[in-house]
Design brief:
Blueprint: H1 2-44, H2 46-49, H3 66-89, H4 97-113, H5 123-137
Helix pairs in contact: 1-3, 3-4, 4-5
């Protein structure tokens, strides 16, 4: 009887540890990885996000290739979707829902304005402010 109880308790501990691993730890790790990737891509694409294409087209100006804008738009939008999906997979230790919703919207906004230039709106300044807001909302520390 003692051997049977030892085996059953071992199996139960194993099942419980797998449950904790699969449904609590792995989603939390994935969520943290998405936040790290957001930080990385915001730094990597900062020049593209805050510098819309020049309208003059002179050869003396530094012009970022249109493909770079397209790639940045897609990656920022993907990060927004990744953040939302990983947030939804968290069972416990969930951050504030309103904060995550705001960050998701801000990332979509950034994706939409990358490569855009408007006369009435200073998009580079607004984009830089959005980047700062995203970092503050996700508690991304500066290095």
């Amino acid at each position: 009887m003692e051997i049977f109880l030892t085996i059953i308790s071992g199996v139960l501990v194993f099942i419980l540890s797998q449950y904790i691993l699969e449904f609590i730890l792995k989603p939390l790790i994935k969520y943290k990885q998405v936040i790290a990737k957001i930080d990385n891509k915001l730094k990597f694409y900062a020049n593209i996000i805050t510098n819309p294409p020049l309208s003059s087209g002179s050869s003396d100006d530094y012009i970022i290739a249109q493909d770079d804008y397209t790639i940045a738009k897609k990656e920022i939008r993907d990060l927004s979707c990744d953040l939302e999906s990983t947030y939804k997979s968290l069972l416990i230790f969930k951050p504030n829902k309103k904060t995550i919703a705001k960050v998701v919207k801000d990332l979509i906004w950034l994706s939409n304005v990358i490569g855009q230039r408007y006369k009435n709106i200073n998009l580079p300044i607004k984009a830089a402010e959005k980047i700062d807001d995203i970092r503050k909302s996700l508690n991304i520390e500066e290095l």
